[in-house]
Amino acid sequence: MIHLLRRCRLLPAVVLLLTMGNQLQAQQAPLTKLLDSFYMVKDPARRINIYNASLNQWPDTGRVNIFYNNARSLIAKEFAQANNLAEAKKWMALIEETGPENRFSVKPGIKLEVASIMIEKGDTAYGISQVQPWADSLYNAFMATGKPGLYYNVVMEVYTPVLINKNHPAQVVKYLTPFYEWSKHSFATDRENVMRTPKDKYDLKTNLAVQYAKALSLTGDTKGAIQVLSAMQAGGLYNQDELSKIVNSYSGGVKKNYASKVLDSLKKSNLNRLVKFQQYKQDINGDKIDLKAIHAKYVLLDFWGSWCHPCRASHPHLKELYTEYKDKGFEIIGIANEMAKDTAQQVKNWETAVKEDGLAWRQVLNNRNGKQFDAVTEFGVTAFPTKILLDSDGNIVATFIGNTGGNDLGNKLHELLDAQH
């Protein structure tokens, strides 16, 4: 959640620097220098001095208000981290924003961040006083409109652990069930946190889906809990050993039936998905894709698009891995998802990119027969690039999101294929 809130506040500061010249003209240079010094210093007292000096020279008006609100937000956060709630509240109260909330709004973000910090420091009373009314308001609006508010996911990421610790699983189920169903059986913040956190530092117990499954289990909904855990297992994004350990800490039917139910569910899901993939998808030469005929131990599905710069930036390293492992039982199928509205333009962009990138493995255009089978949706792809590694039975072995240079994929292939030679 912290990563998301930080990202939401970065752009206003950048926008401020880019547009300041129109408003301040000759004063731009000294104020920019002052801005730099504010964010460079580490001492909170010095930061406040810079803030006050800036305020004396440049009034809090117009676009400059964005800077001051971000400055107040940062100071409030630092006081919260120092366990000085009174000062944190004082600085939050100074934040003034007009108009409806949007993803660049400062006030709701720092409100949630300070609440989260105080909960971590043991002041759950304050955290609940801030988050519970917000959660109720978002939930009621969701029920009325059928659409979750902008902050629904991140508010619940803060509030859910509190409800679990206070033994209120029914409340967790109430808040999360409609959002889980609306978001197609996943939580966006879970994927973002996995992507942004080093593997050795990611705590799966903080995962919102894990907490949701636990709440379902505690309310007696064994079937629902297993379905949530099955979706996590099928996605290949999480460490399966850690997930199994968490399930083993549960009591009752989930622990007893998890292994058999999940495996059965996965087999049915994988079979259905692969049958449809082979039925509706053709490669760039118009040939059907028969995964069994490929005779590979592992097949990588590379979800990309001609428009996606990180996707295409990952291709040179992917070509190196393909050369290294193709004779050891490794194959790749590229699945492009094009953004052009015109079908002919989709095909042209795709074929041109395949040629330009020199991709030797089989290529599929997901837009073709997309209504009959959308591979992006069926494989739960929410970001590009995404690379999904399948075993010979079509089970997801691992999922790699984003372009990290291919190190994780390379390490996985080394683990799976080099040890066998």
From TrEMBL:
Protein name per Swiss-Prot or TrEMBL: Redoxin domain protein
GO biological-process terms attached to the record: cytochrome complex assembly
A matching Pfam family: Redoxin
Organism encoding this protein: Niastella koreensis (strain DSM 17620 / KACC 11465 / NBRC 106392 / GR20-10)
Subcellular location: Cell envelope
Gene3D superfamilies named in the record: Glutaredoxin
Domain annotation Thioredoxin: ranges: 268-421
GO cellular component, one term: cell envelope
Entries under InterPro entries matching the protein: Redoxin, Thioredoxin-like_sf, Thioredoxin_domain, Thioredoxin_ResA/DsbE_sf
Signal peptide positions (record): 1-26
Broad class of where this protein is predominantly found: other
Listed CDD domains: TlpA_like_family
SUPFAM superfamilies to which the protein is assigned, alphabetical: Thioredoxin-like
